[in-house]
Amino acid sequence: MTAQANTAVALQYTEDLPAPLVLAAGRGRLAEAIVRIARESGVTLVEDPLLADSLARLDVNTLIPESLYEVVAELLAFVRNLRTGR
């Protein structure tokens, strides 16, 4: 999940997907709801305003574009390391 003050995007990635999938994206009140649900569900939140803005422009239920692979891969590795204590 990436978030900024008025933008939030939820991503999903599993090994069976060719790239991360945009699960939810929104601005304003919708962004606030996405962040609230993520917190309630124990989802790790990462603030990256530029990435959130780029991802929020994508349609929900679409794979991220190849141009964002590297930055999203770094974000997912960061979250994995947080969870595993590395």
What does this structure look like?
- Helices cover 42% and strands 21% of the residues.
- It is an alpha+beta fold and 86 residues long.
- It has a single domain, classed as secretion proteins EscU (name from scop), CATH 3.40.1690.10.
- The protein has a 4-stranded mixed sheet with strand order 3-2-1-4, sandwiched between helices.
- Strand 1 (2-4) and strand 2 form a beta hairpin.
Lay out the secondary structure.
Blueprint: E1 2-4, E2 7-12, E3 21-27, H1 29-40, E4 46-47, H2 49-56, H3 69-84
Parallel strand pairs: 1-4
Antiparallel strand pairs: 1-2, 2-3
Name its key features.
name from scop; globular; alpha+beta; 86 residues; 3 helices; 21% strand
Order of helices and strands: EEEHEHH
In terms of structural class, how would the helical and strand content be classed?
Answer: alpha+beta
CATH class: Alpha Beta
Using only C-alpha atoms, the radius of gyration works out to 12 Å
SS elements, strand count: 4
Instruction: Categorize the overall geometry.
Output: globular
Question: What's the CATH topology label?
Answer: name from scop
The biggest sheet, with number of strands, parallel, antiparallel or mixed sense and barrel status, is: 4 strands, mixed
Helix amount, in percent? Answer: 40-55%
CATH H-level superfamily: secretion proteins EscU
Number of domains: 1
CATH architecture classification name? 3-Layer(aba) Sandwich
Which blocks of ≥5 consecutive residues have pLDDT under 50?
none
In angstroms, what separates the terminal alpha carbons?
20 Å
Mean pLDDT: 91
